[in-house]
Amino acid sequence: DIQMTQSPSTLSASVGDRVTITCRASQNVSRWLAWYHQKPGKAPNLLIDKASSLESGVPSRFSGSGSGIEFTLTISSLQPDDFATYYCQQYNAYPYTFGQGTKLEIK
Amino acid sequence: QVQLVQSGTEVKKPGASVKVSCKTSGYTLTHFPMHWVRQAPGQGPEWMGWINAGNNNTVYSRKFQVRVTITRDTSASTVFMELSSLRSEDTAVYYCARNFAGPFEYWGQGTLVTVSS
Question: What is the pLDDT of residue A18?
Answer without folding.
Answer: 97
